[in-house]
Write a structure and sequence with these properties.
By secondary structure, the protein is mainly alpha-helical. The chain contains three helices and two strands, in the order ααββα. It binds zinc ion.
Length: about 120
């Protein structure tokens, strides 16, 4: 629709019709921008909802830890999943979180080698 109007403007024969076409084009661009903003808001809302559910599930299954950043004092929840490397940077300020790992913190390599599991053989 916007492109059609643009082509019409380009082909306009007199300045009066060009002016009204440009105004219509501007209105259509405004409508398009408004529609895109609403779509982005909806996607953002759904993403936040999904992220909340994701972390609630990880917490319920005990596959995450909550630690406090030494720099900004923000509580950081990070996933403890074999398939993912342990995130070291604070998402709020970028400070390293490695100093706050517990001494018994399992690494991905430990999990792969069976270290840290309470399995007696
Ligand atoms: Zn921080």
């Amino acid at each position: 629709m916007v492109i059609e109007n643009y082509i019409t403007v380009r082909k306009g024969e007199d300045n009066m019709s060009n002016a009204s076409d440009i105004k219509e084009l501007q209105e259509n661009i405004g409508k398009l921008t408004g529609g895109l903003m609403k779509a982005f808001e909806q996607v953002s809302f759904d993403y936040q909802k999904l992220q909340t559910m994701h972390f609630a599930l990880l917490q319920e299954l005990d596959f995450c830890e909550i630690i406090e950043c030494s720099k900004c004092r923000e509580s950081v929840m990070r996933p403890l999943l074999k398939a993912l490397p342990l995130e070291d940077g604070c998402p709020m300020c970028g400070e390293s979180l490695s100093g706050y790992e517990t001494p018994t913190q399992s690494t991905i390599e430990d999990w792969d080698n069976g270290v840290g599991a309470d399995e007696s053989e």
